[in-house]
Design brief:
Blueprint: E1 9-10, H1 34-41, H2 63-74, E2 79-84, E3 87-91, H3 92-102, E4 107-109, E5 112-118, H4 122-131, E6 136-141, E7 154-160, E8 178-185, E9 188-194, E10 201-206, H5 211-217, E11 220-226, E12 238-242, H6 250-255, H7 265-280, E13 291-292, H8 303-308, H9 323-327, H10 333-344, H11 350-365, H12 369-376, H13 382-390, H14 396-416, H15 424-434, H16 440-447, H17 468-471, H18 486-489
Parallel strand pairs: 2-6, 8-11, 10-13, 11-12
Antiparallel strand pairs: 1-12, 2-3, 3-5, 4-5, 6-7, 8-9, 9-10
Helix pairs in contact: 12-14, 14-15, 14-16
């Protein structure tokens, strides 16, 4: 998870890159930028945490508040959401920041500033904070309260950051949301970028002067930067400073041997991404080996050219049409993201261009493009859904979407089989479809009720008779689930070392209000 290794956040609001080296501030607040901190500072806020074990008035803290303070000390640059009964509470300077950013009431507990959000609605509030460049550490109850009302065990089970979002509600359907890392070496800068939600992973190496062009075509939400280094250009998104030792090619070689040239700047940037994802999300089995993008593969469209051609944004404020809006006849969100990437990085290789055109020509002359479009309408955003499968953040409705998509795949394969000959790209697609897991859609149908609840905690998810152990549960068809927001709060395999011993304990339902 996120550690107190000197990392910090710096969002787009304070983007002048010169501020990176001077951030975080000495005040100890969780504001992601100097701009976010200054309004509070002008009011005498935020003020730092009191000395361990004591309030600002010198009064000794209660055991529960000491527990909060200990967790906050391990994640000083994240807003700590502390699970108390039906609410996630924040205290001290986090409470003041949260009350201001979320426009919620600031109260007090034993003289300490406090602000909370209902656990069942926590996702909405967390996503708003992430969008503004903040990190959020979730500290959950890990046991049920006893009659003795002792202090409950709690642990930080996940740290959410702008570049590691998995949840569908917080993702932009038609746009990538990358986590990127930079590593300078000699006359080059190694760049790596990945989307935790879909598993896409790429890298590149280029002169510093060409970095702005690459930045303009990527939708980066969070940048990992080595401590003590000044980026050569403006980097839109949150900035997170990381120890230089995290920028090592070793994690990449261990996970994806030979994917990138060993010890190269791009490999070191990719290694930093793997370390960070392991800390914040945990294992990502759906993450694909990174592909090194060579400079000669695609055309370079600088920000001025993108805007002049109105690829994504109209020149006039009142304008509505762009090249993307005119061309976008895609049937799926994953197709929309792919089209956007293609527009911002047109191919230069003649062979690859002709391969695309051959595939389009075959579908039009088939004619298969209309029936294929109707089938694709039934498909879900498969890359991101598989990401939620791999990270155990799947919801019942996701399973239904997966079933529908699996049912469509054989129909698409059958449609392609009607062509007398398949161009190379379509042949590769057909081969991939033939290897899709057979029988999985039927298994989902046998297990799930026809109309599962959107929230697994409501029970009634699994059909009676599917499994004897479930039939013996107190409530037939109930699936064991964590507290509200379990899909968002699923514990990562690797959390803070001090919390690991409790990470697999049964989590406490939200009616636990003691300690």
């Amino acid at each position: 998870m996120w550690t107190s290794s000197g990392a910090s956040t710096n969002s787009a609001a304070g983007r002048p890159s010169r501020s990176c080296a001077a951030w975080p501030p000495s005040c100890g607040c969780s504001a992601p930028t100097p701009a976010a901190c200054e309004p509070l500072a002008s009011k005498g806020l935020p003020y730092p945490l009191p000395q361990p074990g004591y309030t600002r008035q010198g009064m000794e803290l209660t055991p529960m508040m000491r527990q909060y303070q200990e967790a906050k000390a391990r994640y000083p640059d994240a807003i700590l959401f502390f699970h108390l009964g039906d609410f996630y509470e924040t205290f001290f300077e986090d409470a003041e920041l949260v009350a201001r950013e979320l426009d919620i009431t600031l109260t007090q507990r034993d003289g300490h500033p406090m602000a909370g959000v209902p656990v069942r609605k926590a996702e909405v509030y967390i996503h708003r904070l992430l969008k503004r460049g903040y990190k959020v550490a979730l500290c959950q109850q890990l046991e049920r309260p006893g009659k003795d009302k002792k202090l409950l065990k709690r642990a930080v089970v996940r740290v959410l950051t702008p570049g590691t979002i998995l949840e569908e509600e917080a993702l932009e359907a038609g746009q990538d949301m990358y986590l990127a890392a930079l590593w300078p070496e000699g006359d080059k800068v190694g760049v790596a970028w990945a989307e935790a939600a879909s598993g896409e992973f790429s890298g590149a190496e280029l002169p510093p002067a060409e970095l702005p062009n690459l930045v303009a075509r990527l939708s980066v939400r969070e940048w990992l930067l080595p401590e003590g280094w000044q980026p050569p250009c403006e980097l839109p998104g949150a900035h997170t400073l990381r120890p230089r030792e995290d920028f090592s090619a070793a994690p990449l070689e261990s996970r994806f041997p030979g994917a990138l040239p060993g010890g190269s700047p791009a490999a070191r940037a990719a290694g930093a991404i793997l370390v960070y994802l392991q800390e914040t999300v945990g294992k990502l089995p759906h993450l694909r080996p990174p592909h090194l993008i060579a400079a000669q593969e695609t055309m370079v469209l600088d920000p001025f050219t993108q805007r002049s051609l109105e690829l994504l944004t109209p020149l006039r404020p009142e304008g509505k049409l762009t090249v993307l809006s005119v061309l976008d006849r895609t049937k799926t969100t994953m197709g929309r993201r792919l089209l956007r990437r293609w527009l911002l990085a047109p191919l230069r290789d003649r062979g690859r261009i002709e391969a695309r055109l051959d595939a389009v020509e075959a579908l039009i002359e088939g004619p298969l493009w209309e029936p294929l479009g109707e089938l694709l309408k039934r498909a879900c955003d498969l890359p991101r859904l598989l990401g939620r499968v791999g990270t155990r953040t799947l919801r019942p409705l996701d399973l239904l979407a997966l079933r529908r998509t699996l049912e469509v795949l054989p129909e698409i394969e059958g449609l392609l089989a009607r062509l007398p000959s398949l161009p190379a790209r379509l042949a590769a697609i057909s081969a991939a479809l033939s290897s899709a897991p057979g029988g999985l859609a039927e298994e989902i149908s046998r297990a799930l009720v026809d109309q599962p609840p959107p929230d697994p905690r409501e029970g009634g998810l699994i059909k009676d008779g599917y499994h004897p152990r479930l039939d013996q549960a107190p409530e037939p068809g109930l699936v064991a689930a964590g507290p509200p927001g379990h899909d968002l709060l699923a514990p990562a395999p690797s959390v803070d070392a001090a919390d690991n011993e409790h990470a697999d304990e049964k989590q406490c339902p939200t009616q636990c209000v003691h300690g």
